Amino acid sequence: MTGPAGERHSLPYTANLSILFTELPLLERAQAARAAGFTKVEYWWPFDSADPSGTDVDRFARSIEEAGVQLTGLNFYAGDMAAGERGLVSWVGREAEFATSLTVAFGLAERLGCRSFNALYGNRIDGVAPSEQDDLARTHLATAAKAAEGIGAQLVLEPLSGTPAYPLKTAADAVAVLDELGLDNVRLLADLYHLAVNGDDLDTVIARYTPRTGHVQIADAPGRHQPGTGELDLEGHLEKLQAAGYAGPVGIEYKPDGSTVDSLAWLPYERRGN
Fold first, then answer.
1. Which parts of the sequence belong to the Xylose isomerase-like TIM barrel domain (predicted)?
2. Separation of alpha carbons 227 and 238, rounded Å
3. N or C: which end of the chain has fewer CB within 10 A?
4. What is the pLDDT of residues 253-265, one digit of tens each?
5. Rounded to whole angstroms, what are the CA distances from 262 to 201, 221, 226, 258, 259?
6. Cβ(135)–Cβ(129) under 8 Å?
7. What's the confidence (pLDDT) of residue 274?
8. What is the arithmetic mean of pLDDT over 59-67?
9. Is 253 annotated as catalytic?
10. From 95, 158, 231, 270, active-site residue
11. Is 132 a catalytic residue?
């Protein structure tokens, strides 16, 4: 399928503003993304804690509203990402933080229309049995999925690279959790960069798991920079995803090699909005 600028697919893009436009403070990035042509944006958890002040939540929401962009995705609070933490879904002892972040996230969803939430699974913890963590994860995911269902939203579960203690590394790892849950609104987040780095064959993942996929993100590999800086045929993979039935947005989640605006040369301006 050929898009309006001659690309091999016509999937819409959404700019991840926790990794793009980091030249600017977080609250200025939505406006910068809109100026660059984007009409859809997504974020990791945009606050320093699971329980931000009402003022901080309002400022974040207003930054999106005033920019005139749609919030398409949001991570639940994942702990201290800079220190290597990767989610609280399975973290025994931090249940209260997870519950608090759900309240904040779904409040933002009601205000901003976001209907997709990334529930990072969490690292394995020394001294806690993996089975205990997995039991907690199923409980947390079921609770969050029920709340999401009430507003017509989904959760997505993401395999990650670069963190040995994070147990979901392949698409099959995540889908095994989905199978145990058996909930229609908990789906796979297929980040093509993470999957490729971890050794998944992307064509096989697309052929097998597109019907289970709720969101897609991209960066080139190696390097995690913009398309064209590595070895992945990202346009080809997105074409196959669309042909297999995926119709959602594609999250642009790479570390720009150079300034963010310069790094977007691969994507024609008219393909950044919808």
1. 31-267
2. 12
3. N
4. 999 999 999 999 9
5. 30, 19, 10, 7, 5
6. no
7. 64
8. 98
9. yes
10. 158
11. no
